Amino acid sequence: MRGENFYRNFFRLMNEHFVDIKFLAVISNVESALTRFANSRIHQNVFERKNNVSVLATKDNKVTIATSNDLTTSGLRSIKEKLQGMLESSTPLDYQFKLPEPTIGYPLDNVTEDAKNFSPEMRASIFDKILHACGEDIQAFGYVSDNVTENSVISSNGMFIYHAYSSFSFNFVAVKDSASGYVSSSAKNIADLDVEKKAQRAVEFAKMSGESIEIEPGLYTVILGPEAVADLFFYFSYVCTNGYMHELKMSPSTRFLGQKIGPDDLNVYDDPFHPVQIPFAYDLCGKKREKTPVIENGIFKNVFYSHGAALRFGKNPTGHTISLEDMDFAMPVNLVVEGGNSSLEDMIAQTKEGIYINRFHYMNVVDPYEAMFTGMTRDGTFLIENGQLTRAVKNMRFNVKFFEFTQNIEAISKQIESTSGEYFPAVAPFMKVRNFNFTSKTA
């Protein structure tokens, strides 16, 4: 870690070198360590430190951005020259741009003691726990990682924000012949990864998946694991919660915002301070982030506005600017789907006929305006017969319209789990859903 004083000095240097330019800068330092394993052996240990500065400059209602990994004074001079040249040739925006108002906030240090003392040997000890769960007949593939990130947001109008945080994550694919199981987790504390319990589940799924059967496409009652739930709600947040697209009436939110879209116990939040979430306390414009409802008591409550979209449409920014290159885009990055009132055991026991789905892959958007998503099952798909997981099912492709999916939710588990996610970590429960549409078999 460089520490807060480094970024305060950088703030001083920026203001000295950019005295004639209005600017917003994001400076980051990421120290990441990774242990990969395959065929039940560690094959890679790496450590990487990445520095980055992105500077947005504005003049005469023009905006341009330059990025560099050179944080020296000569590097700053080079960025300034590049920005000045780009500003000369840029076109003014079609709305009135201004820098964000300075945020007043104390520096935040959310780096845990676990992260400060973590080592390759400690990552290897997590691998040992996974290996212990595998026994003799399961091969282990995956990774264990730890990260310490420092972000500082500074501006020519007096913004100075410093935030440091840490995170841990792992994923594990358990393989037995052609069968597999999968788990993942991200958290700010090692204990919250829940490695032993999750590794055991992946191993059990791999052992259960050996002799799989084909079923016909159609509508089925399904129970989704947290990985699958997290993926569906991630794609919902990506497609449906961007305030820019809402204002242009190009989002499903224009029809569903404020509407009852699911059961009373469906609650989804953007919550940077959830106990097992990674604390992204400020957005890239220095806006302090708060716990914000996305869906509350089954009602679609909010869309989110980045700094650019807020200026463009006369709205208040919500702390969801995640890119200086695209100041119109916004989405929640600390997604938490809260637990409900059921237990996983009861959900399975009360299902006469259905399918259990551990996770999805190759998910994509079929129709953004209808919030229709597609994907395939993977790493643990089973028939539920008379209240028990029985035979493994060959993977299937699905198409679902999200707002039909939420109306068909029958039960939400009290139990929640962290997942690593493809882009951002998420927290999600198990869900029982009727009329889940499988459209075709896979090879």
Task: Describe this entry's structure for a reader.
The protein is of the alpha+beta class and 443 residues long. The protein contains eleven helices and 19 strands. It has helices at 4-17, 73-89, 113-116, 120-134, 195-208, 226-240, 243-247, 253-256, 307-313, 344-349, 402-407, and strands spanning 22-38, 41-59, 62-68, 108-110, 139-155, 160-176, 179-187, 212-213, 218-224, 268-270, 292-296, 299-300, 335-337, 353-367, 372-385, 388-393, 396-401, 409-419, 426-441. The longest helix is centred in the first third of the chain and has 17 residues, at 73-89. It is globular.
Tags for this model:
443 residues; alpha+beta; 7-stranded mixed β-sheet; 5-stranded mixed barrel; 11 helices; 19 strands; 40% strand
Give a short overview:
The chain is of the alpha+beta class and 443 residues long. 24% of the residues lie in helices and 40% in strands.
Largest sheet: 7 strands, mixed
Low-confidence stretches: none
As a whole number of angstroms, the C-alpha radius of gyration is 24 Å
Helix content: 10-25%
Strand content: 35-45%
* Rounded average pLDDT: 95
Judged by helices, strands and strand pairing, the structural class is alpha+beta
What's the number of extended β-strand segments?
19
Overall shape: it is globular
What is the ordering of alpha helices and beta strands? HEEEHEHHEEEHEEHHHEEEHEHEEEEHEE
Q: In angstroms, what separates the terminal alpha carbons?
A: 48 Å
